[in-house]
Amino acid sequence: MTTHQQQLEKYADLALQKGINLQEGQGLLINAPLEAADLVRTLTAKAFGRGAKDVHVEWSDEVLTYLKMKHAPMEVLEDYPRWKAEGKEQMVKDGYSVLSIFGPDPDLLKNVDSERIAAANKATAQALADFQSFVMNDKVTWLVLGYPQKAWAQKMFPDDSGEEAQRKLWEHIFNITRVDQDDPVAAWETHNETLRQAREFLNDKQYKKLHYRAPGTDLTVELPENHIWHGGSATSEQGIEFIPNMPTEEVFTMPHKYGVDGKVSSTKPLNYGGNLIENFTLTFENGKVVDFSAEAGEENLKHLIETDEGARRLGEVALVPHESPISQSGHIFFNTLFDENASCHLALGKAYPTNVEVGPNMNKSEMDEHGVNDSLVHEDFMMGSAELDIDGETKEGDTEAIFRNGSWVLDFG
Ligand code: ZN
Ligand code: ZN
Fold first, then answer.
1. What spacing in Å lies between the alpha carbon of 164 and ligand 1's midpoint?
2. Interval 177-192 mean pLDDT
3. CA 149 remoteness from chain centre
């Protein structure tokens, strides 16, 4: 029998080897909640074992986050400390990999005024814009990795004690990330190969438009010229292959920022900054949200969309078959890292510049010309289901079926 500590070690090995692909002599920045100390310590020991030159941990604590969001004066929330942003910038400029451990309480900020949350989110995004752009352009290797904090686990398993809920969620995470297999690294190589075939098929096709149809959804998404689909592993500026999200089941590219029209309905709750936004619809004209509504969390959706001009437009279009291992678990995770990999999704806000051939070194007007959206936010939301059909319009103007009933119809194997 494998003990929990053995599984945790396999998880850490997988994250360092296949995830960020840590190199000898390299530094590592870990962003982590205090509750994940066991995993952070395991990662740190293994990182030094692999020849890391330094491991720096940025701890956070949800209780402290809540207290600050609830009680600190507005001017404090509106002012993300410059020294903190500069520290992170300096590390990525020195080539540190960035590993973010992620497993927030989906309801953490339920009782905090949405204006205050919006102000803090905006200040954080502004202060960290340069750091984020380093990461989003793959200038260093990076990874987002799940950790079942108790509050999150209990949201999923409300009838269980904190310990039992956490144990159950660990089991799902180890299963979904293939850590429960004999050789997780080999399993990821096979999985990465499947994603590579899907993205290469779509890159050859260069569809002009995607057309989505499902209950509550009728949406056309234009894709920019020379768009690039990514999925599975990415390659950093230094040529290091890495996997930025674990789990990951998606292939994704960017929509043309002026080319989205129609209506889309969400199919899973979106955890946005400590609040859930549920059953929402967005209506687009010429790429811009012109109308929206939500059954829950509409105020937070409004703040998200009003962050800046680019937050009203899309920056990502991602395809995920409905039969992904995460959907098969049958759970809603209330956590975007997991839910986005169980469902076709779109993102409001900033596009990944690596999704077009012109690439990361565009200035603002070149980005606009190529239809590359820019914003302080990048927020994925789920709109896939077993009822989703997607057609692609080819360069010649023909229509081809891509997804039927939530799954690939293309045979790219
Ligand atoms: Zn995505
Ligand atoms: Zn995204």
1. 30
2. 96
3. 18
**Confidence band of 140 (pLDDT split at 50, 70, 90):** very high
Interval between CA 345 and ligand 1 midpoint (Å): 7
The confidence band for 405, taking pLDDT boundaries of 50, 70 and 90, is: very high
Measured in Å, residue 354 CA sits from the centre of ligand 1 at 13
Q: Hey, what amino acid is at 144?
A: V
What spacing in Å lies between the alpha carbon of 350 and ligand 1's midpoint? 12
- Fold of the CATH domain 4-176: Thermophilic metalloprotease-like (3.40.1830)
Give the pTM: 0.91
Query: CB of 245 within 8 A of CB of 337?
Result: yes
Q: Ligand 1 centroid to 6 CA: how many Å? A: 30
pLDDT at position 323: 84
Beta bridge partners of 58: 31
pLDDT at 355: 94
pLDDT at 231 over 70: yes
Q: Determine the distance separating the centroid of ligand 2 and the alpha carbon of 298, expressed in angstroms.
A: 21
Q: How far is the CA of 75 from the centre of ligand 1 (A)?
A: 33
How many whole angstroms from its chain centre is CA 342?
12
Q: Is the pLDDT of residue 273 over 90?
A: no
Q: Is the previous residue joined to 353 through a cis bond, with omega within 30 degrees of 0?
A: no
CA of 162 to the centre of ligand 2 (A): 30
Are 22 and 52 in contact, with CB atoms under 8 Å apart? yes
Residue 207 contacts by C-beta under 8 Å, 6 or more apart in sequence? 223, 392, 393, 394, 400, 402
Give the phi and the psi of residue 191 in degrees, each rounded to 5: -60, -40
Contact (Cβ atoms closer than 8 angstroms) between residue 175 and residue 325: yes
Query: Which residues face 92 on adjacent strands?
Result: none
Domain residue ranges in the chain: 4-176, 207-408
Give me ligand 1 centre to Cα 58, in Å.
Answer: 25
For residue range 391-403, list pLDDT tens digits in order. 999 999 999 999 9
* Long-range residue pairs from 165-173, CB within 8 A, at least 24 positions apart, any chain: 170/4, 170/7, 172/329, 172/331, 173/11, 173/146, 173/148
